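Render Putative dehydrogenase in 3D.
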Amino acid sequence: MTRVGIVGAGNVAARHADVLSGFPDVTIAGIADTDPHRAEALASKHGSPAYGGHADLLSAGGLDAVYVCVPPFAHGNPEHDVLSCNLPLFVEKPLSLDLQTAEKIATEIERRSLPSAVGHHWRYLDIVEQARDLLSGRPVRLALGHWLDKVPPVGWWLKREMSGGQIVEQAVHVLDLARLLVGEVEMVHAVPAGDSVDGEVDRATSAVMRFAGGASGLLATSCLLTRKHRVGLEVCAEGIALELSETRLLVDGERAIEDDGRAKTRVDREFINAVQGRAADVRVPYGEALRTHRVALALARSATERRPVTLHD
């Protein structure tokens, strides 16, 4: 039985807990949150002990792996403390608010040769695999990404220093998909709307991206709406246009293919397989997620500094 600890007890942590509790070879050994009432509520649902912080969870011992599902501003110490215990690590995106924190974590994971994964579950959509097959031999020349949505109902999200902004906190899913289907990003230039409030996230941003393979990309984000309006990625290659969302692939604007809805289960199952030393299809280990995170942070920097930003490996 694989014993998993979870740091964080918010909505995303609860989703992972629900999935993990459905695996017959996994038990949730403890849940930690700085809000003891929230930790207790989620822990009691899964018959697990609750802890007031990740240090107490780790001190209790008996863990085989740890999920870190905390807000963007809280990344860093939990990951380093988990790694100091030599435990495999699953981290929910975004990785951090600054690049240095994520780079140090990636270096430590590599040094210890530990299994890792990041919650870019879109990589596990079965329609993404179908899109890759359809694009085989046809390089993408144009990518159009969208995240047009509402403000999430958490108090920290609108504060730039806590969430990192919409591109970092939400649209990073679209950026990760673009890297998979189009390739690495070389340059970004983001332009925010002119009505931003000091200290708050930009309510709308548009950006141009140049890919290493020569493709051009556009990204549009907004949190001005009252509901999720449009989230996904469109790509154009020779003789084909694909539009992907989290639930559907549209081919040439005519043929719709529905996703099987199991991506959020697959991302957890494959990480657990890796922890158990079994054959595992971990599609986004921490180091791979870091490459996407660099793009997101470059876009955020470009929007703040009002200039193009070039990415360097």
